Amino acid sequence: MSSRLRIALATTALAAMSSVNPVTAGTEQKLVIADQAQIVDKVSTIFAAALRDDVAKFDSVIASDFYIFDGGVRFNGDSIMAFIKAQHLAGKRYEWNVTEPDVHITGKTAWVAYVNKGSITDASGTVNQNWLESAFLQKQAGIWKIVFMHSTRVPMATQESHGK
Asked: Most buried in the list 71, 108, 146, 161, measured by CB within 10 Å?
């Protein structure tokens, strides 16, 4: 067998071995999409739980070593929920919405960046507010858990200049 023929056969064999089975690829794509939806849902669940001061629901989606940077302060799960509850008792209400999620998954870890479009309501009225946020998640025992979050409030002047 000529060396050209061997090279051609080897190249063809390598290409065949490395090609993706279309059935498997479709299944993997569906799993990725399902995981992406679960990840966005976990972040949305944190906000729904915080809105209602539901610590049990909040704890159901966070890892045991969860923490968040918000407003220049590091909070763990208990301290952020206590802070939010105190805000509620002081008459403040928040609306949070995960929009424009950008989800990245690698094995059992994932991160998501998103724009949190919401509002803050108190005795003086309601002010629309956007936050730029991100979360890091781990799949623990088959369930996505939020390990870390970061939130940066978009200054009102920036929101207004961009027509948001």
From this structure: 146
